[in-house]
Amino acid sequence: MSLQRCATCGKEFDRAFGDSSLSLSCPACDQQRAQTTRASLPSGPDALSPAAFPVTITLIAGSVLVFAVMVLRGVSPVAPTPQQAIEFGADFGPLTLGGQWWRLVTSMFVHFGFIHLGLNMWCLWNLGRAAERLLGRFSYLFVYLASGIFGSIASVYWHPRAAGAGASGAIFGLAGVLVSFVYLKKTPANLQINSKMLGSLGTFILYNLAFGALPGISNAAHVGGLVMGLGIGALLPSASAFESSRRNRLSIVVAITVIALIASAVATKRLRAGVSELTSIQHLITTGKTDEALAQLQQLTIRDPNFAPAQSMLGSLYFQQRRHPEAIAALQKAYAAEPNNTSYQQKLGSAYLTLGQFDQAIVFYQKLATQHSNDSRVYLGLGYAYAGLKQYGQAISQFHQAVSIDAKSPGPQHALGQAQLRAGRFADAQETYRRLLAQFPDDSRAKAALEFATKQIH
Q: Which of 36, 142, 274, 370 has a CA-to-CA distance to 419 between 20 and 30 Å?
């Protein structure tokens, strides 16, 4: 026998001669540690049954229930509109930053259609079971909610004027906490979670981040949830830690996380103060108080000259007051701040055309054509600019391009027909308007134009 001091409780204990155990704790502490680990994890034949994962099932049921209520209330099950999603609790900067902070949570249970819901719930079922088994129910639910909230905050910061919804931020948080646990070797020895799982999680994260780069998907929520999950996973106690130690460590982690969430929400509100301010300015415009709205917009754009929505609204107000140079300058700033926003593109291009600045319009639309070659509106803009310069051959060529891209809309065909009439190509105009009337037989403008072209030929 040899005496040794326990590294856990500090008591001396006898170690039998020849005992090769690497444990630095006494047998009583080793036994308590083993019991704590076994108690915190499901075991036996029912370990993987649905009943072993009540939190995961409850979270899935909550999202499915919200979606069912949305559909029963008349929302499209395939593609709900942003406004419909907002009505059911989606994240939206002007409302969230305006005081409706509960949207940071409710948005996790709102989805844009059954495909969005199905993909998220499939990921939650697979990652959630692993996380619930590994972390325990409280820690698992805490990670899910904290990651989802932080993802919502990130989404509001990067896309303050867009409606954000879905559980993907929270799901990325689960992936993050699992990566931390595996990488930092916090998993208990009796669970077969190893480097293969780490590789699978990495593949899942990279694939979904790549998928999230598609238009209409908020990678900000994904990255926000992932960062929060990684951080919490690094701070949480190991699965094999003593229960008293786990509780103390968990209390500290919860406090740190709550402080981080509150601080990030306050920072986002301050950095995106213009979003909620813009809502009140819009109300002033709606109620006819344009002078007051203009004064507030001028102050807002001075404070934040790169806030594109404010510059765009300012440009529209300047146009109403016929302050055209200032309107163009404001719309140029909106476009420069968000060059891929089609609304700002069309506003600036239309302003050039309305003011007769056809040379600037041609340069502008030619630049857009290199970036958006499948957008018929770009070629319509080019056509109108050339027509304004009475270069009808060029205009007709651009309108033909617009018609080839959007053959089912009457607008491009009307523009083509008018250019052909002005160029004196009456036979071509007849053909254009006959084709248009075959699609839209009640179009009175097309009938009148066809009659005019026919008289010119005879």
A: 370
Q: Of 168, 218, 312, 376, which residue is the catalytic one? A: 168
Number of independent structural domains in the chain: 4
Give residue-wise pLDDT tens across range 345-368: 999 999 999 999 999 999 999 999
Token pair, residue 316, equals 């529209």
Distance CA(151)–CA(264), nearest Å, equals 11
pLDDT digits (tens, 9 = 90+) for 104-161: 999 999 999 998 898 889 888 988 888 888 888 899 999 999 999 999 999 988 888 7
Q: By CB neighbour count within 10 A (0-12 exposed, 13-18 middle, 19+ buried), where does 2 fall? A: exposed
Catalytic residue selected from 25, 63, 107, 222? 222
- Cα(174)–Cα(233) distance, rounded to whole angstroms? 9
Could you tell me the residue range of the domain that residue 345 belongs to?
272-355
The predicted pLDDT at position 210 comes to 63
Q: Say which residues have a Cβ less than 8 Å from residue 280's Cβ, sequence separation at least 6.
A: 296
Residues 91, 165, single domain; the answer is yes
Rounded distance between C-alpha atoms, residue 91 and residue 103, angstroms: 5
Q: Is 222 a catalytic residue?
A: yes
> Residue 149 class from Cβ within 10 Å (0-12 exposed, 13-18 middle, 19+ buried)?
buried
Are the C-beta atoms of 366 and 382 separated by less than 8 Å? yes
Q: Which residue has the higher pLDDT, 291 or 10?
A: 291
- Is 99 a member of any domain? yes
Q: How many CB atoms lie within 10 A of CB 95?
A: 19
Residues 305 and 315 in one domain: yes
pLDDT of 235 higher than 50: yes
DSSP string covering 355-411: TT-HHHHHHHHHHHHHH-TT-HHHHHHHHHHHHHTT-HHHHHHHHHHHHHH-TT-HH
Residues 239 and 367 in one domain: no
- The structure tokens 């083993």 sit at 34
